[in-house]
Amino acid sequence: MTQTPISFDSLPLAPAALANLQQLGYLQMTPIQAESLPLALAGHDIIAQAKTGSGKTAAFALPLLHKLRVDAITVQALVLCPTRELADQVTLELRRLARYEANTRILTLVGGIPLRPQLASLEHGAHIVVGTPGRVIDHLERGSLSLDAVATLVLDEADRMLDMGFADEIAAIAKKLPKDRQTLLFSATYPEGIAKISQQLMREPRRVTVQAQHDAGKIRQRFYEVKEAERLHAVSLLLDHFRPASTLAFCNTRQQCRDLVDVLRGQGYSALALHGDLEQRDRDQVLIQFANRSCSVLVATDVAARGLDIAQLEAVINVDTTPDPEVHIHRIGRTGRVDAEGWALSLASLDEMGSIGKIEQLQGVESDWHKLAELTPAAGGKLAAPMITLQIAGGRKEKIRPGDVLGALTGEAGFAAGQIGKIVVNEFSTYVAVDRQIGREALARLSAGKVKGKRVKVRFLEDEAG
Ligand code: ADP
Ligand code: MG
Fold this sequence. Notes:
This protein is α/β, with parallel strands linked by helices. The chain has 17 helices and 18 strands. Strands 3-4-2-5-6-1-7 form a 7-stranded parallel β-sheet, with helices on both faces. Strands 10-11-9-12-13-8-14 form a 7-stranded parallel β-sheet, sandwiched between helices. The protein is globular, with a radius of gyration of 23 Å. The model has no long low-confidence stretch (mean pLDDT 91). Magnesium ion (MG) binds next to helix 3.
Protein backbone atom coordinates (compact mmCIF):
# COMPACT_ATOMS: atom_id res chain seq x y z
CA MET A 1 0.00 0.00 0.00
CA THR A 2 1.07 3.55 -0.64
CA GLN A 3 1.85 5.00 2.75
CA THR A 4 1.79 8.74 2.17
CA PRO A 5 -1.53 10.06 0.88
CA ILE A 6 -1.26 11.59 -2.56
CA SER A 7 -3.54 14.37 -3.71
CA PHE A 8 -5.19 14.34 -7.13
CA ASP A 9 -3.49 17.67 -7.86
CA SER A 10 -0.33 15.79 -8.80
CA LEU A 11 -2.13 14.40 -11.88
CA PRO A 12 -2.26 16.08 -15.30
CA LEU A 13 -6.03 16.63 -15.13
CA ALA A 14 -8.02 19.68 -16.24
CA PRO A 15 -8.58 22.26 -13.46
CA ALA A 16 -12.36 21.74 -13.75
CA ALA A 17 -11.91 17.99 -13.26
CA LEU A 18 -9.78 18.60 -10.17
CA ALA A 19 -12.27 21.10 -8.76
CA ASN A 20 -15.06 18.57 -9.22
CA LEU A 21 -13.09 15.89 -7.35
CA GLN A 22 -12.62 18.35 -4.52
CA GLN A 23 -16.38 18.99 -4.45
CA LEU A 24 -17.06 15.27 -4.34
CA GLY A 25 -14.83 15.02 -1.29
CA TYR A 26 -12.17 13.04 -3.15
CA LEU A 27 -9.22 14.66 -1.45
CA GLN A 28 -6.64 11.92 -1.80
CA MET A 29 -6.19 9.07 -4.21
CA THR A 30 -6.89 5.59 -2.94
CA PRO A 31 -3.87 3.26 -3.29
CA ILE A 32 -5.09 1.69 -6.54
CA GLN A 33 -5.79 5.14 -7.98
CA ALA A 34 -2.33 6.37 -7.00
CA GLU A 35 -0.72 3.36 -8.69
CA SER A 36 -2.77 3.25 -11.87
CA LEU A 37 -3.81 6.83 -12.72
CA PRO A 38 -0.37 8.16 -13.72
CA LEU A 39 0.14 5.16 -16.05
CA ALA A 40 -3.37 5.26 -17.49
CA LEU A 41 -3.22 9.01 -18.08
CA ALA A 42 0.08 8.46 -19.93
CA GLY A 43 -1.80 6.16 -22.29
CA HIS A 44 -0.67 2.72 -21.15
CA ASP A 45 -2.84 -0.38 -21.12
CA ILE A 46 -3.39 -1.50 -17.56
CA ILE A 47 -4.33 -4.60 -15.63
CA ALA A 48 -5.33 -3.39 -12.19
CA GLN A 49 -6.18 -5.65 -9.32
CA ALA A 50 -7.61 -4.43 -6.02
CA LYS A 51 -10.37 -5.41 -3.66
CA THR A 52 -13.97 -4.28 -3.86
CA GLY A 53 -14.47 -0.79 -2.52
CA SER A 54 -10.96 0.41 -3.33
CA GLY A 55 -12.03 3.06 -5.85
CA LYS A 56 -11.42 1.24 -9.14
CA THR A 57 -14.20 3.11 -10.98
CA ALA A 58 -12.47 6.48 -10.74
CA ALA A 59 -9.20 4.79 -11.72
CA PHE A 60 -10.63 4.15 -15.19
CA ALA A 61 -13.23 6.94 -15.34
CA LEU A 62 -10.77 9.82 -14.96
CA PRO A 63 -8.47 8.71 -17.82
CA LEU A 64 -11.34 8.05 -20.21
CA LEU A 65 -13.02 11.36 -19.37
CA HIS A 66 -9.69 13.13 -19.78
CA LYS A 67 -9.44 11.94 -23.39
CA LEU A 68 -13.07 12.63 -24.26
CA ARG A 69 -13.87 15.14 -26.96
CA VAL A 70 -17.43 16.22 -26.23
CA ASP A 71 -17.75 18.22 -29.46
CA ALA A 72 -17.68 14.96 -31.41
CA ILE A 73 -20.79 12.92 -30.67
CA THR A 74 -19.32 9.47 -31.18
CA VAL A 75 -18.88 6.62 -28.76
CA GLN A 76 -15.32 7.15 -27.53
CA ALA A 77 -15.32 4.88 -24.51
CA LEU A 78 -16.90 1.50 -23.89
CA VAL A 79 -17.12 0.09 -20.37
CA LEU A 80 -18.13 -3.57 -20.09
CA CYS A 81 -19.57 -4.81 -16.79
CA PRO A 82 -20.87 -8.23 -15.78
CA THR A 83 -24.37 -7.26 -14.59
CA ARG A 84 -27.01 -4.58 -14.93
CA GLU A 85 -26.58 -3.63 -11.31
CA LEU A 86 -22.83 -3.07 -11.65
CA ALA A 87 -23.34 -1.19 -14.91
CA ASP A 88 -25.79 1.09 -13.08
CA GLN A 89 -23.27 1.68 -10.27
CA VAL A 90 -20.53 2.53 -12.77
CA THR A 91 -22.83 4.86 -14.70
CA LEU A 92 -23.72 6.71 -11.52
CA GLU A 93 -20.07 7.19 -10.56
CA LEU A 94 -19.16 8.23 -14.13
CA ARG A 95 -21.90 10.87 -14.09
CA ARG A 96 -20.58 12.28 -10.82
CA LEU A 97 -17.01 12.39 -12.11
CA ALA A 98 -18.13 13.91 -15.44
CA ARG A 99 -20.18 16.70 -13.86
CA TYR A 100 -17.63 19.37 -14.82
CA GLU A 101 -18.39 18.79 -18.50
CA ALA A 102 -22.16 19.27 -18.68
CA ASN A 103 -22.58 17.95 -22.22
CA THR A 104 -21.12 14.52 -21.61
CA ARG A 105 -23.56 11.86 -22.76
CA ILE A 106 -23.37 8.54 -20.97
CA LEU A 107 -25.61 5.67 -22.00
CA THR A 108 -26.23 2.38 -20.23
CA LEU A 109 -26.92 -0.63 -22.46
CA VAL A 110 -27.88 -3.64 -20.37
CA GLY A 111 -30.06 -6.70 -20.80
CA GLY A 112 -33.31 -7.45 -19.01
CA ILE A 113 -34.97 -4.23 -20.14
CA PRO A 114 -36.62 -3.34 -23.47
CA LEU A 115 -34.46 -2.51 -26.49
CA ARG A 116 -36.63 0.25 -27.89
CA PRO A 117 -35.71 3.09 -25.49
CA GLN A 118 -32.05 2.12 -25.89
CA LEU A 119 -32.39 2.41 -29.68
CA ALA A 120 -33.91 5.86 -29.32
CA SER A 121 -31.10 7.00 -27.01
CA LEU A 122 -28.49 5.63 -29.39
CA GLU A 123 -29.97 7.70 -32.18
CA HIS A 124 -29.37 10.81 -30.08
CA GLY A 125 -25.75 9.75 -29.75
CA ALA A 126 -23.49 9.09 -26.78
CA HIS A 127 -19.88 9.64 -25.78
CA ILE A 128 -19.62 6.79 -23.32
CA VAL A 129 -21.43 3.46 -23.34
CA VAL A 130 -21.58 1.35 -20.18
CA GLY A 131 -22.98 -2.06 -20.93
CA THR A 132 -23.17 -5.78 -20.38
CA PRO A 133 -21.53 -7.91 -23.08
CA GLY A 134 -24.72 -9.64 -24.25
CA ARG A 135 -26.68 -6.45 -24.84
CA VAL A 136 -23.74 -4.67 -26.48
CA ILE A 137 -23.50 -7.57 -28.95
CA ASP A 138 -27.26 -7.32 -29.63
CA HIS A 139 -26.81 -3.70 -30.62
CA LEU A 140 -23.73 -4.41 -32.73
CA GLU A 141 -25.66 -7.09 -34.62
CA ARG A 142 -28.59 -4.77 -35.21
CA GLY A 143 -26.23 -2.07 -36.42
CA SER A 144 -27.60 0.35 -33.82
CA LEU A 145 -24.21 0.82 -32.15
CA SER A 146 -20.97 1.83 -33.82
CA LEU A 147 -17.71 1.38 -31.97
CA ASP A 148 -15.39 2.72 -34.71
CA ALA A 149 -14.37 5.74 -32.66
CA VAL A 150 -13.71 4.01 -29.35
CA ALA A 151 -10.44 5.22 -27.84
CA THR A 152 -10.82 3.47 -24.47
CA LEU A 153 -12.11 0.00 -23.69
CA VAL A 154 -12.67 -0.82 -20.03
CA LEU A 155 -13.27 -4.31 -18.70
CA ASP A 156 -14.63 -3.82 -15.19
CA GLU A 157 -14.97 -6.75 -12.79
CA ALA A 158 -13.16 -8.84 -15.38
CA ASP A 159 -12.91 -11.86 -13.11
CA ARG A 160 -16.64 -11.94 -12.65
CA MET A 161 -17.29 -11.52 -16.39
CA LEU A 162 -15.09 -14.57 -16.97
CA ASP A 163 -16.94 -16.49 -14.23
CA MET A 164 -20.15 -15.74 -16.05
CA GLY A 165 -18.79 -17.11 -19.31
CA PHE A 166 -18.44 -13.81 -21.20
CA ALA A 167 -14.92 -14.46 -22.57
CA ASP A 168 -16.12 -15.08 -26.15
CA GLU A 169 -18.48 -12.12 -26.15
CA ILE A 170 -15.73 -9.82 -24.92
CA ALA A 171 -13.36 -11.03 -27.65
CA ALA A 172 -16.09 -10.56 -30.29
CA ILE A 173 -16.77 -7.00 -29.12
CA ALA A 174 -13.05 -6.15 -29.06
CA LYS A 175 -12.82 -7.17 -32.73
CA LYS A 176 -15.17 -4.29 -33.57
CA LEU A 177 -12.94 -1.72 -31.91
CA PRO A 178 -10.04 0.21 -33.40
CA LYS A 179 -6.72 -1.54 -32.75
CA ASP A 180 -5.26 1.77 -31.79
CA ARG A 181 -7.02 2.12 -28.46
CA GLN A 182 -6.30 1.97 -24.78
CA THR A 183 -7.56 -1.03 -22.83
CA LEU A 184 -7.99 -0.90 -19.06
CA LEU A 185 -8.81 -4.08 -17.18
CA PHE A 186 -10.01 -4.08 -13.57
CA SER A 187 -10.48 -7.07 -11.36
CA ALA A 188 -10.72 -8.01 -7.70
CA THR A 189 -8.86 -11.29 -8.22
CA TYR A 190 -6.47 -12.61 -10.86
CA PRO A 191 -7.62 -15.99 -12.16
CA GLU A 192 -5.88 -17.67 -15.13
CA GLY A 193 -8.41 -16.49 -17.68
CA ILE A 194 -7.33 -12.88 -17.16
CA ALA A 195 -3.81 -13.49 -18.45
CA LYS A 196 -5.29 -15.14 -21.53
CA ILE A 197 -7.74 -12.40 -22.34
CA SER A 198 -5.15 -9.69 -21.75
CA GLN A 199 -2.79 -11.38 -24.21
CA GLN A 200 -5.57 -11.29 -26.78
CA LEU A 201 -6.77 -7.76 -26.20
CA MET A 202 -4.03 -5.64 -24.70
CA ARG A 203 -0.75 -4.08 -25.75
CA GLU A 204 2.13 -4.31 -23.32
CA PRO A 205 -0.15 -3.94 -20.33
CA ARG A 206 1.33 -2.72 -17.06
CA ARG A 207 0.17 -4.67 -14.05
CA VAL A 208 -0.76 -2.81 -10.88
CA THR A 209 -1.73 -4.70 -7.78
CA VAL A 210 -2.62 -3.32 -4.44
CA GLN A 211 -1.90 -5.92 -1.84
CA ALA A 212 -5.04 -7.33 -0.33
CA GLN A 213 -4.18 -6.24 3.18
CA HIS A 214 -6.36 -4.15 5.39
CA ASP A 215 -5.82 -1.55 7.99
CA ALA A 216 -5.56 -4.06 10.82
CA GLY A 217 -6.71 -1.51 13.37
CA LYS A 218 -10.14 -1.15 11.83
CA ILE A 219 -11.14 -4.76 11.43
CA ARG A 220 -11.34 -6.79 14.59
CA GLN A 221 -11.12 -10.46 13.66
CA ARG A 222 -12.22 -13.38 15.81
CA PHE A 223 -12.38 -17.06 15.03
CA TYR A 224 -14.72 -19.63 16.59
CA GLU A 225 -14.35 -23.37 16.29
CA VAL A 226 -17.69 -25.07 15.60
CA LYS A 227 -19.03 -28.55 15.01
CA GLU A 228 -20.92 -28.91 11.77
CA ALA A 229 -24.24 -29.38 13.58
CA GLU A 230 -23.94 -26.11 15.50
CA ARG A 231 -22.69 -23.88 12.66
CA LEU A 232 -25.96 -22.18 11.70
CA HIS A 233 -27.07 -21.71 15.28
CA ALA A 234 -23.67 -20.20 16.09
CA VAL A 235 -24.50 -17.35 13.71
CA SER A 236 -27.42 -16.29 15.89
CA LEU A 237 -25.20 -16.52 18.99
CA LEU A 238 -22.80 -14.08 17.31
CA LEU A 239 -25.63 -11.74 16.31
CA ASP A 240 -27.09 -11.73 19.84
CA HIS A 241 -23.72 -11.10 21.40
CA PHE A 242 -22.29 -8.44 19.09
CA ARG A 243 -25.62 -6.95 17.97
CA PRO A 244 -24.35 -5.47 14.72
CA ALA A 245 -26.92 -3.24 13.02
CA SER A 246 -25.91 -4.52 9.57
CA THR A 247 -24.21 -7.83 8.85
CA LEU A 248 -23.06 -9.53 5.69
CA ALA A 249 -22.85 -13.30 6.24
CA PHE A 250 -20.91 -15.34 3.66
CA CYS A 251 -21.72 -18.95 2.84
CA ASN A 252 -19.94 -21.16 0.32
CA THR A 253 -23.11 -22.49 -1.35
CA ARG A 254 -26.57 -21.28 -2.29
CA GLN A 255 -28.11 -24.09 -0.27
CA GLN A 256 -26.25 -22.98 2.85
CA CYS A 257 -27.53 -19.42 2.24
CA ARG A 258 -31.11 -20.65 2.09
CA ASP A 259 -30.71 -22.85 5.17
CA LEU A 260 -29.18 -20.04 7.21
CA VAL A 261 -31.90 -17.58 6.21
CA ASP A 262 -34.54 -20.13 7.24
CA VAL A 263 -32.90 -20.61 10.63
CA LEU A 264 -32.46 -16.88 11.25
CA ARG A 265 -35.96 -15.94 10.13
CA GLY A 266 -37.35 -18.75 12.26
CA GLN A 267 -35.71 -17.04 15.23
CA GLY A 268 -37.13 -13.64 14.36
CA TYR A 269 -34.20 -11.93 12.64
CA SER A 270 -34.74 -9.87 9.51
CA ALA A 271 -32.48 -11.86 7.21
CA LEU A 272 -32.48 -12.12 3.42
CA ALA A 273 -30.48 -14.22 0.97
CA LEU A 274 -28.54 -12.92 -2.02
CA HIS A 275 -27.39 -15.65 -4.38
CA GLY A 276 -27.02 -16.35 -8.05
CA ASP A 277 -30.47 -17.96 -8.42
CA LEU A 278 -32.35 -14.75 -7.79
CA GLU A 279 -34.13 -12.92 -10.58
CA GLN A 280 -32.86 -9.37 -11.07
CA ARG A 281 -36.04 -7.90 -9.58
CA ASP A 282 -35.72 -9.99 -6.41
CA ARG A 283 -32.05 -9.06 -6.15
CA ASP A 284 -32.95 -5.37 -6.39
CA GLN A 285 -35.57 -5.78 -3.66
CA VAL A 286 -33.16 -7.59 -1.35
CA LEU A 287 -30.52 -4.88 -1.77
CA ILE A 288 -33.06 -2.09 -1.26
CA GLN A 289 -34.15 -3.65 2.04
CA PHE A 290 -30.57 -4.10 3.22
CA ALA A 291 -29.62 -0.54 2.32
CA ASN A 292 -32.68 1.01 3.98
CA ARG A 293 -32.18 -1.00 7.18
CA SER A 294 -35.29 -3.18 6.89
CA CYS A 295 -33.02 -6.19 6.77
CA SER A 296 -30.20 -6.51 9.27
CA VAL A 297 -28.54 -9.67 7.96
CA LEU A 298 -27.72 -10.23 4.31
CA VAL A 299 -26.66 -13.82 3.61
CA ALA A 300 -24.67 -14.13 0.41
CA THR A 301 -22.37 -16.26 -1.69
CA ASP A 302 -19.08 -14.69 -2.77
CA VAL A 303 -20.10 -14.45 -6.39
CA ALA A 304 -23.41 -12.75 -5.57
CA ALA A 305 -21.75 -10.14 -3.36
CA ARG A 306 -18.83 -9.31 -5.63
CA GLY A 307 -18.57 -5.70 -6.72
CA LEU A 308 -21.48 -4.45 -4.65
CA ASP A 309 -20.87 -1.07 -3.10
CA ILE A 310 -22.45 -1.71 0.30
CA ALA A 311 -21.81 0.94 2.90
CA GLN A 312 -21.99 0.81 6.69
CA LEU A 313 -21.38 -2.79 7.63
CA GLU A 314 -20.81 -3.36 11.33
CA ALA A 315 -19.93 -7.02 10.85
CA VAL A 316 -18.95 -9.68 8.35
CA ILE A 317 -19.56 -13.27 9.39
CA ASN A 318 -17.76 -16.08 7.61
CA VAL A 319 -20.30 -18.83 8.12
CA ASP A 320 -18.22 -21.22 6.02
CA THR A 321 -14.45 -20.91 5.67
CA THR A 322 -13.41 -20.18 2.11
CA PRO A 323 -10.71 -22.42 0.64
CA ASP A 324 -9.20 -19.37 -1.12
CA PRO A 325 -7.40 -17.11 1.38
CA GLU A 326 -7.67 -14.08 -0.96
CA VAL A 327 -11.43 -14.45 -0.90
CA HIS A 328 -11.30 -14.32 2.91
CA ILE A 329 -9.44 -11.01 2.69
CA HIS A 330 -12.02 -9.64 0.28
CA ARG A 331 -14.88 -10.77 2.49
CA ILE A 332 -13.63 -9.13 5.67
CA GLY A 333 -12.64 -5.95 3.80
CA ARG A 334 -16.36 -5.22 3.55
CA THR A 335 -16.39 -4.10 7.18
CA GLY A 336 -14.20 -1.54 8.92
CA ARG A 337 -14.44 0.95 6.08
CA VAL A 338 -13.50 4.61 6.07
CA ASP A 339 -13.81 5.87 9.64
CA ALA A 340 -15.74 3.05 11.30
CA GLU A 341 -14.52 -0.09 13.02
CA GLY A 342 -15.98 -3.46 12.15
CA TRP A 343 -16.09 -7.05 13.29
CA ALA A 344 -14.96 -9.96 11.13
CA LEU A 345 -16.23 -13.15 12.77
CA SER A 346 -15.31 -16.52 11.33
CA LEU A 347 -16.67 -19.98 12.09
CA ALA A 348 -14.47 -22.97 11.33
CA SER A 349 -14.78 -26.71 11.83
CA LEU A 350 -11.82 -29.04 12.30
CA ASP A 351 -12.11 -29.98 8.62
CA GLU A 352 -11.48 -26.36 7.68
CA MET A 353 -8.27 -25.87 9.66
CA GLY A 354 -6.18 -26.36 6.52
CA SER A 355 -7.88 -23.37 4.91
CA ILE A 356 -7.51 -21.36 8.12
CA GLY A 357 -3.78 -22.07 7.99
CA LYS A 358 -3.60 -20.58 4.49
CA ILE A 359 -5.51 -17.51 5.65
CA GLU A 360 -3.08 -17.04 8.56
CA GLN A 361 -0.16 -17.30 6.17
CA LEU A 362 -1.55 -14.68 3.80
CA GLN A 363 -2.51 -12.29 6.60
CA GLY A 364 0.75 -12.85 8.39
CA VAL A 365 -0.99 -13.01 11.75
CA GLU A 366 -2.16 -15.83 13.95
CA SER A 367 -5.90 -16.23 14.38
CA ASP A 368 -7.50 -14.99 17.55
CA TRP A 369 -9.59 -17.99 18.70
CA HIS A 370 -12.57 -17.66 20.98
CA LYS A 371 -15.16 -20.07 22.33
CA LEU A 372 -18.85 -20.06 21.51
CA ALA A 373 -19.47 -20.45 25.24
CA GLU A 374 -18.16 -16.89 25.75
CA LEU A 375 -21.05 -15.52 23.75
CA THR A 376 -23.84 -14.10 25.84
CA PRO A 377 -26.97 -12.47 24.47
CA ALA A 378 -26.85 -8.74 25.11
CA ALA A 379 -29.81 -7.09 26.80
CA GLY A 380 -32.62 -5.76 24.65
CA GLY A 381 -34.14 -8.92 23.20
CA LYS A 382 -33.85 -10.13 19.62
CA LEU A 383 -32.06 -7.87 17.21
CA ALA A 384 -34.77 -6.56 14.91
CA ALA A 385 -34.17 -4.34 11.92
CA PRO A 386 -35.22 -0.78 12.83
CA MET A 387 -37.21 -0.23 9.63
CA ILE A 388 -39.69 -2.07 7.44
CA THR A 389 -40.24 -1.60 3.70
CA LEU A 390 -43.55 -0.76 2.06
CA GLN A 391 -43.87 -1.41 -1.65
CA ILE A 392 -46.17 0.87 -3.58
CA ALA A 393 -47.41 -0.31 -6.98
CA GLY A 394 -46.35 2.52 -9.28
CA GLY A 395 -43.03 4.20 -9.96
CA ARG A 396 -41.30 6.38 -12.54
CA LYS A 397 -43.84 5.29 -15.15
CA GLU A 398 -46.50 6.99 -13.01
CA LYS A 399 -44.15 9.95 -12.45
CA ILE A 400 -44.00 9.29 -8.71
CA ARG A 401 -41.13 11.06 -6.99
CA PRO A 402 -39.71 10.45 -3.50
CA GLY A 403 -41.20 13.78 -2.37
CA ASP A 404 -44.71 12.62 -3.29
CA VAL A 405 -44.42 9.61 -0.99
CA LEU A 406 -42.82 11.58 1.83
CA GLY A 407 -45.58 14.16 1.39
CA ALA A 408 -48.33 11.55 1.60
CA LEU A 409 -46.88 10.06 4.78
CA THR A 410 -46.09 13.29 6.60
CA GLY A 411 -49.06 15.28 5.33
CA GLU A 412 -52.45 13.66 5.34
CA ALA A 413 -51.26 10.50 7.11
CA GLY A 414 -49.68 12.54 9.91
CA PHE A 415 -46.33 10.80 10.46
CA ALA A 416 -43.14 12.61 11.45
CA ALA A 417 -40.39 12.89 8.84
CA GLY A 418 -38.03 11.18 11.27
CA GLN A 419 -40.16 8.02 11.09
CA ILE A 420 -39.63 7.74 7.34
CA GLY A 421 -36.44 6.26 5.87
CA LYS A 422 -35.05 5.86 2.38
CA ILE A 423 -37.40 6.12 -0.58
CA VAL A 424 -36.43 4.41 -3.83
CA VAL A 425 -38.46 4.90 -6.99
CA ASN A 426 -37.99 2.27 -9.69
CA GLU A 427 -39.70 2.05 -13.03
CA PHE A 428 -42.84 0.28 -11.84
CA SER A 429 -42.54 0.28 -8.03
CA THR A 430 -41.70 2.59 -5.17
CA TYR A 431 -40.10 1.37 -1.95
CA VAL A 432 -40.29 3.35 1.25
CA ALA A 433 -38.72 2.39 4.55
CA VAL A 434 -40.68 3.35 7.65
CA ASP A 435 -40.00 2.88 11.34
CA ARG A 436 -40.95 -0.74 12.12
CA GLN A 437 -43.17 0.47 15.01
CA ILE A 438 -45.46 2.35 12.65
CA GLY A 439 -45.37 -0.23 9.83
CA ARG A 440 -49.00 -1.34 10.07
CA GLU A 441 -50.36 2.14 10.57
CA ALA A 442 -48.36 3.48 7.65
CA LEU A 443 -49.60 0.67 5.41
CA ALA A 444 -53.21 1.32 6.42
CA ARG A 445 -53.06 5.10 6.03
CA LEU A 446 -51.18 5.00 2.73
CA SER A 447 -53.70 2.51 1.34
CA ALA A 448 -56.60 4.67 2.48
CA GLY A 449 -55.07 7.92 1.21
CA LYS A 450 -53.57 9.12 -2.04
CA VAL A 451 -50.14 9.53 -3.62
CA LYS A 452 -49.91 12.16 -6.33
CA GLY A 453 -53.70 12.49 -6.23
CA LYS A 454 -54.32 8.79 -6.86
CA ARG A 455 -55.20 5.72 -4.78
CA VAL A 456 -52.28 3.30 -4.62
CA LYS A 457 -51.80 -0.37 -3.77
CA VAL A 458 -49.38 -0.86 -0.90
CA ARG A 459 -47.97 -3.97 0.76
CA PHE A 460 -45.12 -5.04 3.04
CA LEU A 461 -42.19 -6.21 0.97
CA GLU A 462 -40.69 -8.69 3.39
CA ASP A 463 -43.58 -11.17 3.62
CA GLU A 464 -42.74 -12.57 0.23
CA ALA A 465 -38.99 -12.14 0.17
CA GLY A 466 -36.43 -14.55 1.53
P1 ADP B 1 -14.44 -0.67 -6.54
O1 ADP B 1 -14.85 -0.55 -7.99
O2 ADP B 1 -12.99 -0.84 -6.34
O3 ADP B 1 -15.24 -1.71 -5.81
P2 ADP B 1 -15.70 1.92 -6.29
O4 ADP B 1 -15.12 2.58 -7.47
O5 ADP B 1 -17.11 1.44 -6.39
O6 ADP B 1 -14.78 0.71 -5.80
O7 ADP B 1 -15.52 2.94 -5.06
C1 ADP B 1 -15.99 2.64 -3.76
C2 ADP B 1 -16.48 3.91 -3.07
O8 ADP B 1 -15.40 4.80 -2.79
C3 ADP B 1 -17.45 4.71 -3.93
O9 ADP B 1 -18.55 5.08 -3.14
C4 ADP B 1 -16.65 5.91 -4.40
O10 ADP B 1 -17.48 7.02 -4.60
C5 ADP B 1 -15.66 6.11 -3.26
N1 ADP B 1 -14.34 6.66 -3.69
C6 ADP B 1 -13.60 6.28 -4.75
N2 ADP B 1 -12.44 6.97 -4.82
C7 ADP B 1 -12.43 7.82 -3.77
C8 ADP B 1 -11.48 8.81 -3.28
N3 ADP B 1 -10.31 9.03 -3.88
N4 ADP B 1 -11.83 9.50 -2.18
C9 ADP B 1 -13.01 9.28 -1.56
N5 ADP B 1 -13.94 8.37 -1.94
C10 ADP B 1 -13.65 7.64 -3.04
MG1 MG C 1 -16.05 -1.60 -9.25
